[in-house]
Every structure is written in structure tokens, then in C-alpha cells.
Amino acid sequence: MSTRNQEIVKFSDLDSDIQELIRTAVAYRQKAHCPYSNFQVGAALKCDDDSVFGGCNVENVAYGCTICAERTAVVKAVSEGKKVFKHFAITGDVTDGFISPCGSCRQVIVEFGTDVKVYLAKPDFSDVLVTDMDTILPLPFVPTSIPE
Questions:
Q1: Is 78 within a domain?
Q2: 83: Cβ contacts below 8 Å, ≥ 6 apart
Q3: Domain encompassing residue 62
Q4: Is 143 within the bounds of a domain?
Q5: Which of 3, 43, 1, 13 is nearest to 127 (CA)?
Q6: Tens digit of pLDDT for each residue in 22-78?
Q7: Which of 105, 64, 66 is nearest to 88 (CA)?
Q8: Please, what's the b/e burial string for 15-41 (b: 16 or more CB within 10 A of its CB; e: otherwise)?
Q9: 70 catalytic per annotation
């Protein structure tokens, strides 16, 4: 069940490996193909073996064909045989708050487990909202029953 774990921390206070994961997400943000929304999003996930996969949003004129940065990273990881995720960093064109994965991306991420730490980072490397999948997607649709 959701534990509502979240706190805002300074980027400089994070472990160096998490800082590098966020830097990777910011770098992937720059690769976004978003001619319609002009809203760049980057994501990077770290797997249980410490491999890292990044992704950016890729828009399409047929909007339903658009894929989010988070799902791009997940698809890249799974296509390489990785299915256990530890950390997920996400950043976008927001400086006065934090962006969070859309509902579809949240559901895709929890397909591979709810025990994933999530870092919602401002692109200027200032503040980071640290949370987890259990908090941002309480009561997920999973193939097992929901505990009481």
C-alpha cells in the first residue's frame, strides 16, 4: 500500500550515482522529438545490475503514436533483457514544479515492480522530488490481489 514517501532535496545532496542518472535523463531530454508540444522530456532508469537506459519523448502527427520518455527507456531496457528496475529519473521543461509520469507510463513501470525509487528532477540541477512508484501509483492494476 502507498506510504506517501516523498521529499524535495537539493541535487547536490544526492549520491553521485543518482546525480549521474539525472544527468543522463537531462541529456536524453535534449534528444526529444516534440515538434507539436515543444515539451521535451527525458528519462533514465537504472536496473538491478546497474545498467542504465535512457529515453526521450517522440511525438507523431498522429498523436496516439506518440511515446513518452519513460516508456522509451522501459522498452529499451526490456529489449535488452532487463526487467528489474531500481531507480528512475525523469525531467522536463518545468522549472516551477516537477513533472511526473503520465498514467500510462506509471502502469508500464509498475509492470516490472512497485519497488522503484523515482527522482523527478528540474532540468537546471537544482531541486529533485524523491519518491517511489508505490506513492505515485497507489493501488496499481497488478495480476495479484491488493493487500488489505
A1: yes
A2: 77, 112
A3: 7-136
A4: no
A5: 13
A6: 999 999 999 999 999 999 999 999 999 999 999 999 999 999 999 999 999 999 999
A7: 105
A8: eeebbebbbbbbebbeebebeeeeebb
A9: yes
Residue 14 in 3-state DSSP?
A: coil
Q: Is residue 73 part of a domain?
A: yes
Set of cell numbers at residue 108: 508500464
Which three cell numbers, joined as nine digits, stand for 91?
A: 525531467
Which residues of the chain form beta strands (DSSP E)?
7-10, 41-47, 52-56, 85-92, 117-121, 127-132
User: Would you say the pTM of this structure is higher than 0.70?
Assistant: yes
Quick one: DSSP state of residue 80?
A: T
Q: What is the CATH number of the domain that holds 22?
A: 3.40.140.10
Which pLDDT score, from 0 to 100, does residue 140 have?
86
Q: How many domains does the chain have?
A: 1
- Of 7, 20, 59, 70, the active-site residue reads 70
Residues 79-128: tens digit of each pLDDT:
999 999 999 999 998 989 999 999 999 999 999 988 899 999 999 999 99
